[in-house]
Structures are given as C-alpha cells and as structure tokens.
Amino acid sequence: MAVDAYRSIGRLAAAQALSNLFQMSKETVEASFLLILLQTKHIPRFTGSSADGPGLLSPEIVWRKPGSWISKNKKKNPAILLVGVVHLSTFHPQQRDRLGRYSRAVSGIILSDENVVFASLDGDIHVAVIGGAALPRRAHLGDVVNDGALVDFTGCDRWWVGLYAGVPGRAFHIWNSETEELMFVDGDLTDLEAVTGWHLLTELTELVGRVRVTTRDTAVACTGLRLVVIDLRNQGWILRERSFQQGLIVGSFDSTSESLMAVDGGGVAIVLRVEGLEESCRFNVRGASQRGVVGCMNDSGYGVMCVGGVIRVWDVENGVYLYSLRERLGEVNAMHADERHIVACSSDGTIHLWDFGAQ
C-alpha cells in the first residue's frame, strides 16, 4: 500500500496511507518511512568489523534481500511495520596461499540480476550465483608476482576492468564479461605507484587508484597524478588524459556516464565532462586538503563528499552547495549514491543508508 501510494501520488502520501490502515499517527509512520523504502530494493548489507582490518572489505560477501513483517504491540501502537531480511548466500573466495595479510581483501564487486562478481587484491576473480547453492567459481586466478596487486575492479554487462599496481606496464586488465576471456593487459597509469601497490598486500596505505566504467565501451581511471579515459573495445587505447598540478585525492574520485569528479590537493573539487574532459564547474570542499575525503556522484547531477564524518551534497552542474546530512559518522572508507539513496561505510564496519529522493 505504501509503495502504491508513493508511486501514484508521491512520497508524502505513503505515510498517510499506512496511517489510515493501521490507525498509527502520521508522524510515527513518517519517521519510519526510510525503513519502508528498503522494501523496494535489493540491498547488500555488510555487518560487523572486517577481520582483515579497518578500511577493507572482508573476503566474506553476504547477500540479503528485503522482507517485512507486522509486530503487534498493544502497549504502544496497534501495529508497527518492521524491516527484516532474508539471508540468501554467504560467499567466500576459494582458498589459496596468501601473499600478504590483506591479499584476500575484496577490491571490487560487480552486481547483476543473477550474479555477484568479486575480485581480491591478489587478482583472483570469483563469480557467484545470487541465491544459488553452489560455491563461488574462480573465473580468473591472480598472479601477483607478474601483475601486481588488483587495487580496483569494476565492470558492466560487457566488460570487466581491473586496475593493477606493482608491475610497470600492466596497469589495465580488460576481460570480456560474457566469455570471461582476458582481452588486454597494458598501461602505465600506476607505474609510479608500483611500490605502494605491493604495500597494499601487507599494510594499510592510501588508495592507489580508481577505475569506473562510464559507458558501455569506455572507462575512466585515475591515480593521485593522472586521469585517463580508455576505449575498452580498442585494446585500452587512451582516448583522453589529464594531469593535475596539485594532484588528486583518489578517494574523492567518481564518475557517471557523462561526468567525473575529483578533489585536488588544494581541496577544490573539479567536475569534468567525460567526453573531451572539459571542465564543467569547480567548488571548494572545506577541510579536504587537511583530512581524507571520500566522494561519489549520481546520474541526477549530485556530487557527495564526506570530510571529517560530515556528508555534504553539491549540484555538479553548476557547483552550488545544497546541504549537509544531519548524522555525523566519523571516518568513512566507502560511499555510493544512486538516484534515491546514499550509502556509506564507516571504519567500524557499519553501513549507513539515507533516502534523498526529490519530493
């Protein structure tokens, strides 16, 4: 009922619909509406602290889907809508010799309707069927000695893209995601970060680089010194590149199909068009030059930055600051935004979710 009211009339109508049904106060329902929104999406939930240390995902992937039930409490409200979850699967990488304390830490996840594809720092790539009983299948056996550490991993329905650091001339690995065939190995983007790439296997360091698929056949990647746009169809050919005099804060980098965003060493966020790398706008991110910053953006034109536990939102079309979120999180090591939600992971392993849909 809440979802139907929301879709046909608007967000505020959902609270009134549940209030009429259960005779609960409209204010009580509105306060719980974020929980109701969770019923409409499949959301991966990671709970607890990672055994591999703060700032890294544990090599255990837990997938859950929403469920709900009604709990009656005569002392308070006659009925309270609660959110539950149904556990589907727990995925572990296949065992192998460890080449460092963090070698099995997850460096990237690709999610489709049927599969979860996840990669670890040692270069292994596993494919698991959502809800399936079979163990994850190793699609690619990593070779740290010859390739370096797999520092970031992403993809789409056609490509998997890995960004490596540790061995010069082998920064990009590109696979055909349908056949799982390795199509290309080359690139010097991370050559200057080779030593840091090796250190990732044994200690906590700054982020080396990030890579994002921007369209079906292009990807954009950055380190603290360079940013490149590559053609996935044409052997990773560099279409465009740009250097930054003050460097980039890698954790602030993200992209959509049309734009990319990153904060430089002076605390200035720069938004560029993927096509041509022309600058769209820039804005100051307070405190970014002194403290770590984590950033993300969505296709609706919002840029999100977290500095010192404070999450702020900008309009990336014109660089106008919009608002900050009320909650304070402490240190954040991962964040993502889509058209409806912002999700952030704090250093204690807790996942925080906000709804910022327009109404």
UniProtKB/TrEMBL annotation:
Entry keyword Repeat: yes
WD repeats (start-end): 338-359
Keywords: Repeat, WD repeat
Keyword Lipid metabolism set for record: no
InterPro entries: WD40/YVTN_repeat-like_dom_sf (IPR015943), WD40_repeat_CS (IPR019775), WD40_repeat_dom_sf (IPR036322), WD40_rpt (IPR001680)
PANTHER family assigned to the protein according to its UniProt record, in alphabetical order: TRANSCRIPTIONAL REGULATOR STERILE APETALA-LIKE, WD40 REPEAT PROTEIN 12, 37
Protein name, as recorded: Transcriptional regulator STERILE APETALA
Species whose genome carries this gene: Anisodus tanguticus
